[in-house]
Amino acid sequence: MTSRLGRRVAVALCLLGLSACSPGAQADPLKPPLTDRGNIQLPKEAGRPAFDLLTLDSRNGRLYVSHSSASTLEVIDVRSRKLVGRVAGLGSIKAIALTKDPNIVYTSESSGSIGVVDVPGLKLIKTLDLGGSPDAIEYDPIHDIVLVGLASDKKVAFVDATAVTLLGTMSLPGSPELMAVDQKTGVVYLAIHDLNEVVKIDPVTRSILKTLKGCDIKAPTGVAYDPDQGLLFVASSGNLAVIDLVIEQCRGGIDIGRGTDQIAFNPHLHHVYTADGGSRYVSVIDTVNLKPLGVFGTGPEAGTLAVDPTTDMVYVMVARAGIVATYHDP
Question: H or E stretch including 4?
């Protein structure tokens, strides 16, 4: 029987691309899981830069970057690979949510409000004060609702995306982290960082439908959902938990890097990417065979990313350098 240490060594070699990931696997140790396509430099600043979550809209080819140290939303055209504009005055911006209109996005700001941004006009057109240090923000296209995690209040807010009005809030059992929305049902999966669990939320009744625990979930951060496989992926530092939502059972865990923040799912390739900032690399996971495909080096504080499933491009924010590293899969 293989020892625990032996298994750890085997997985580590697999992640580094030095061995096959399973019996019969055809992994090429000389072929990395991603192809480096260069960097996009963002405006430099005098002090140490700080960035948060990334969001990509494949409808208009825009990558949205939360430049928190500058209180600015950076807008990148991924086709021309250039910064096409900035929206200032967004106090400690944390994240961006798309809406049904590609010309409108929502932003969350830890200063206590959310903003509505006119993308072509590069201007803030409305704000809504929520308090509670808004952090993660996502859009439910089924019910036209923007969901906002209120970190300090341990609540989630529900906002009518068209009317820009607060529909209500819901108390959470602990501190909210990142979330994933089922694009077919509107159901939300939200990580509760301090309780080692994920809650399943109905955005209409504003209630918790299920609490998902176990599966070696510890201090969860990023969450991604593969609707075709019915699988939920939850990132902890060093581990990616896999939960089968159809039978509501754990499918195990996959070793990833340390310091993971944002993760993203590519429905075209059925790959999950995890931004392992502490380990300075991105892990690539096959969600069909549930195996790691390898890692690719990024840089210091590279903890957030986004993917474009129409081009299979992956964008990683290398915060300390103030650059967006770009990769193609494979």
Answer: helix 4-15
- Tell me how crowded residue 181 is: count the other CB atoms within 10 A of its CB: 23
Query: What does DSSP assign to residue 43?
Result: P
Instruction: Name which CATH class applies to 55-213.
Output: mainly beta
Q: How far is CA 303 from CA 211, 226, 248, in A?
A: 26, 21, 29
Q: 9: which 2 tokens?
A: 């060594």
Residue (of 95, 48, 81) closest to 324 by Cα position = 81
Report residue 164 as tokens.
Answer: 């820009």
Q: Quick count: other Cβ atoms within 10 Å of Cβ 180?
A: 23
> What is the structure's pLDDT at 146?
98
Query: Which amino acid appears at position 15 of this protein?
Result: L
Residues above pLDDT 90, as percent of the chain: 88
Kindly list the distances between the CA atom of residue 75 and the CA atoms of 13, 96, 161, 246, in Å, as whole numbers in the listed order. Answer: 38, 11, 21, 38
Judge contact between 169 and 155, C-beta under 8 A.
Answer: yes
Question: Residue 12 phi/psi, 5° resolution?
Answer: -60, -45
Residues of the chain with pLDDT under 50: 1-27
- Tell me the one-letter amino acid at 57: D
Local structure of 8: helix, strand or coil: helix
| Residue for token pair 């341990």 | 154
How much is the pTM? 0.91
- Residue 7 DSSP class: H
> What's residue 31's pLDDT?
82
Tokens of 188: 């939300």
**Contact criterion met (CB below 8 Å) for 125 and 141:** no
Do 114 and 137 touch, CB atoms closer than 8 A?
yes
Q: How far apart are the first and last CA of the chain?
A: 34
Provide the residue ranges of all domains of the chain, joining segments of one domain with +: 55-213
CA distance 56 to 96: 9
Phi and psi for 73 in degrees, rounded to 5?
-95, 120
What residue type is 97 in one-letter code? A
